[in-house]
Amino acid sequence: MSDGGSLRPEPGQVVPAAYEGTWKFDAPALDSSVPQSRHAVRDLLVRRRVPIGDDLLQGVLLIVSELVTNAVRHAGVLSPEIGVELSVGAGWVRVAVRDQHPYRPKALQADDEETGGRGLLLVKAITKEAGGACDVQHTVDGGKVIWASLPLAGVTSPRTAPSAPGWPAWPRRAPS
Fold first, then answer.
1. Per-residue model confidence as pLDDT tens digits over 80-136
2. What CA dihedral angle connects 32, 38, 44 and 45, to 10 degrees?
3. What is the C-alpha separation between 28 and 60, in angstroms, rounded?
4. N or C: more exposed end of the chain, with fewer CB within 10 A?
5. What's the rounded Cα separation, in Å, for the pair 135 and 113?
6. 8 A C-beta contact, residue 60 and residue 19
7. SS (H, E, C) the chain
8. What angle in degrees, to the nearest 10, is found between the helix axes of 54-75 and 33-47?
């Protein structure tokens, strides 16, 4: 350690970029939470100077809108409050929405006869096009978390995006 007060990393130690971190907020299960959540995520990504291109940023914001909309419309009765999480690591960004409804959406499928139900298909398409992953997982308390993890183009790191969120505040059920 130097006298200047700064710590130097050990050889081989990976130091997080200044923009890396995890941020969570809760929102009421109301329609007004959709644009508020989208704006909060956008503002956070800009304020933290995350190296995200405009196309990917627009994709992330659309995913946030779709996931929050689904939680409000389909889980609001059992989940008056939803949780939104944004995680950014070296080379990836992940958004997730938690609600208290136990229903797991049909594996991102839609019926051509239905006028709704395409939001999760859109999330899946955006995620796939970006080279990421998305899934739905049940929580220990009976709810669920729907998440999408996308790579940040042009950012390389020895660390890879987690395949699933692991938030102590949102416990998941043990695999059965």
1. 999 999 999 989 999 999 998 887 776 454 455 555 567 888 999 999 999 999 999
2. 180
3. 21
4. C
5. 24
6. no
7. CCCCCCCCCCCCCCCCCCCCEEEEEEEECCCCHHHHHHHHHHHHHHHCCCCCCHHHHHHHHHHHHHHHHHHHHHHCCCCCEEEEEEEEECCEEEEEEEECCCCCCCCCCCCCCCCCCCHHHHHHHHHHHHCCEEEEEEECCCCEEEEEEEECCCCCCCCCCCCCCCCCCCCECCCC
8. 150
Q: 1 pLDDT band (50/70/90 cuts)?
A: very low
Specify the residue for token string 């009765």: 77
Query: Side chain identity at 117, as an amino acid letter?
Result: G
Q: Please list the residues that pair with 94 across neighbouring strands.
A: 87, 149
Comparison of pLDDT for 48 and 176, the residue scoring more? 48
Task: Provide the pLDDT for residue 154.
Answer: 62
Nearest to 152 by CA among 130, 135, 126: 130
* Rounded (5°) CA angle 19-168-158: 40
For the segment 23-58, what is each residue's pLDDT rounded down to a tens digit?
999 999 999 999 999 999 999 999 999 999 999 999
